[in-house]
Specification:
mainly beta, about 60% strand
Length: about 725
């Protein structure tokens, strides 16, 4: 039953002598179906035998379409609606039509609107002298002005607008076709196009040009990037971005595709430039992940580059090592399976001369399963692993290749003792067989076993203060013993040891399999946590390790060397979600700092700043002849509703020089986005020179799903 039928029912009621004031004429109530309609108005009357007139706050509802007007006249003989405004027609897809007068079909799908505006997705407004609705798909508009800028009495001229003789909106294709289009900025004509096609705001992916951006670097000169987006169906797309500058011709590419069980993404570029004039330069990065049967996941990573300086010269990445890998993994509640092959390539200046002496390929497999035996109690974990890595060099010692087959079993159990004392016991044994090639210092086949055991005592105590704050104090004591029996193995995977709150009470603090802690040792620590009802909280922790043997296992910078470790201090502070601080430091017996890492951030309504600081002493055993002392700062300030400025910088405090600095300025409102950026890299090497990079981008929002900030306000 169409709207006309619903109005005819109202007509019949009126003919029978029903006077309707503040009336509602509604189709019969029954399950929702196409054709139901409703008419609500202050007054409804009949004139003659074919006209029904509704006046005063008229509302018509039909299949999700809502029409409001001051007066509606239905002519039975023509099945047409004559409507007087102000008129508003809202459609289920978010499209809104506003007009002063209209002649429409009874289903509201076709007709003519005069002095009308079309509003798409609450973003783009198109004002027209006349709008015609055709075939319930096309909206034809004449003498058009289109803009997503806010227009009102105090701001009658939009920042930008597109004037056109005619515009056609294809609702199915979600495209806007402009005929005789003229772009105006502050009502000043900028350029003219006889034909222009743009996606409407509801379309997220459409073939066409994306906003260009100007880019200037001291290495490559002044240039412009003009991205072109190519839609390859519903599940794939390709973006081609030519970059033409004074010293380079570059084509940047990005390809994405989604599959039923996963997705892939690739990014890359190919260049001919004056930096290396006789060489074609390129890079390609890719990644993907797929779900396999039986809960397995396949993932891969691809990273290739033509020369060590290419990524930095063009600002694509700061990576100094490349990783190519393919992995298969499954993680279940009581089981973990992993297998993968990885290849590494270095871009570091210090490593390039010896790149053939670094492991370039690595194979890893790992299987772990846990059990809960009732006869033993606690948790039992068993694992099997295999690892192999290879070097390209064939020289003795420098070209060492190594493979390992290992197995391990571990048991943990905890009890609650008197006064809330928590007792945790753990024990285990690991065993491995090694095959070593191209290193005359070690036998080619060796094996070892490493039993270990430990007990941890925790005594958590809590109280609630008069203010409502909750304090938790937890002293912890840990004793452990382990011994590596058997082979003398080169340490390949456990060179860098991090000493922190996470492993203070671990049986083994080496990150890999080639080394195990030897001898008896004890660790003590305490932590204090406080939570306030007002929203702030902090945690302070301290600890130290004492050992009776294995003094030379660890490096000085690790903080674990000698009969007693450095003091470990940690702090976490959160003040009501505004300020956060996280820090860790290692102090020797003279309270000198051997290693520290601190991160802090403050977030206000219109201002934010963050800082990171790191300090590590020199240690030749970790290939660090000089101390590392670095600081990084990031900040941003929202100057107004529209303007935002940001800055960042990295500093090498040991060398007393900046390594990188950046400045950004952004303007954004409901219809325009402008981004201005300036950055400088100060570091240099044989392959890379200091570079200054300038970027500029302007985007007219309101097309193709681009949404601006709705912050523009007009005074009455």
């Amino acid at each position: 039953m169409g709207l006309g039928s619903g109005l005819r029912r109202g007509l019949c009621a009126a003919v029978l002598g029903l006077a309707v004031t503040t009336a509602a004429i509604i189709a019969p109530a029954r399950p929702a179906m196409a054709g139901q309609a409703s008419l609500i108005a202050d007054h409804v009357r009949v004139e003659g035998n074919s006209a029904l007139i509704a006046q005063g706050n008229v509302v018509v509802l039909y299949e999700g379409i809502r029409l409001t007007a001051s007066r509606v006249v239905y002519d039975k003989s023509t099945d047409k609606l004559s409507i007087e405004g102000p008129i508003t027609i809202s459609r289920p897809d978010g499209t809104v039509l506003i007009a002063q007068a209209a002649e429409l079909s009874s289903d509201l799908r076709n007709g003519i609107l005069k002095s009308a505006r079309l509003v798409l997705n609450e973003q783009l407004q198109i004002a027209a002298a006349q709008i015609n609705r055709v075939n319930d798909r096309y909206t034809q508009m004449t003498r058009v002005a289109a803009s997503s800028c806010h227009v009102c009495k105090t701001n009658p001229v939009p920042l930008w607008q597109i004037r056109a003789d005619r515009v056609v909106h294809d609702e199915k294709a979600r495209q806007l076709y402009f005929h005789g289009a003229q772009l105006r900025v502050a009502d000043v004509p900028v350029f003219y196009l006889p034909r222009l096609r743009l996606p409407d705001p509801t379309l997220k992916r459409a073939t066409g040009f994306l906003p260009p951006r100007i880019r200037t670097t001291s290495t490559l000169g002044v240039g412009v990037v003009t991205p072109f987006f190519l839609r390859l169906g519903d599940h794939a797309d390709l973006t081609l971005s030519p970059f033409l500058a004074a010293k380079t011709t570059t084509l940047e590419l990005r390809y994405r595709q989604a599959f039923r069980a996963g997705d892939i993404a690739f990014a890359g570029a190919i260049s001919r430039d004056s930096v290396l004039p006789d060489q074609t330069r390129y890079y390609v990065f890719g990644e993907g992940e797929f779900a396999l049967p039986r809960d397995y996941t396949l993932s891969f990573e691809l990273q290739e580059v033509s020369d060590p300086a290419y990524l930095l010269d063009y600002g694509y990445s700061d990576q100094d090592r490349l990783r190519n890998a393919i992995n298969v993994m499954r993680a279940r509640r009581d089981e973990f399976v992993f297998g993968g092959i990885t290849r590494y390539d270095t871009l570091r200046e210090s490593e390039l001369p010896i790149s053939d002496q670094l492991p370039f390929a690595q194979i890893d497999t790992f299987y772990e399963r846990r059990f809960f035996p009732k006869w033993l109690g606690g948790e039992l974990r068993g694992n099997l692993s295999w690892q192999a890595h290879f070097r390209e060099s064939t020289e003795d010692i420098l070209g060492r290749d190594m493979a390992r087959l290992g197995a391990g079993i571990g048991w943990t159990r905890s009890w609650i003792g008197p006064a809330g004392l928590v007792i945790e016991a753990e024990a285990g044994v690991d065993a491995s067989v090694y095959w070593i090639e191209q290193d005359s210092r070690f036998e080619s086949e060796q094996s070892f076993a490493a039993p270990s055991a430990g007990v941890t005592l925790r005594w958590p105590m809590s109280r609630v203060a008069a203010s409502g704050a909750v304090d938790i104090l937890e002293p912890v004591a840990h004793i452990a013993w382990s011994r590596q029996v058997g082979a003398d193995i080169p340490n390949e995977d456990s060179v860098f040891v991090e000493f922190d709150e996470a492993n203070l009470f671990d049986l083994n603090r080496f990150p890999g399999y080639d080394q195990r802690e030897d001898g008896a040792r004890a660790a003590v620590g305490v932590s204090w946590t406080r939570h306030s009802p007002s929203g702030w909280a902090f945690t302070l922790a301290a600890g130290r390790v004492f050992r009776e043997g294995g003094f030379d296992q660890f490096t000085d910078a690790s903080g674990l060397a000698g009969s007693s470790s450095d003091w470990l201090l940690g702090a976490h502070v959160n003040l009501g979600g505004r300020f956060a601080l996280q820090g860790r430091a290692l102090l020797d017996d003279d309270f000198g700092v051997t290693k520290s890492e601190t991160r802090a951030a403050y977030l206000a309504e219109d201002f934010e700043i963050s800082a990171a600081h790191i300090w590590v002493i020199e240690d030749t055993a970790e290939n660090r002849p000089d101390p590392t002392h670095e600081l990084r700062l990031d900040g941003a300030y929202q100057i107004s509703d529209f303007w935002r400025v940001s800055a960042d910088g990295s500093f090498d405090l040991e060398a007393r020089q900046a390594t990188r600095a950046g400045l950004g300025l952004r303007y954004q409102n409901e219809c325009l986005f402008v981004d201005l950026s300036l950055s400088r890299r100060f570091t240099s090497s044989i392959n890379v020179t200091p570079t200054t990079d300038f970027g500029f981008k302007v985007e007219l929002t309101g097309f193709g799903g681009a949404r601006g900030r709705t912050v523009h306000k007009c005074s009455s």
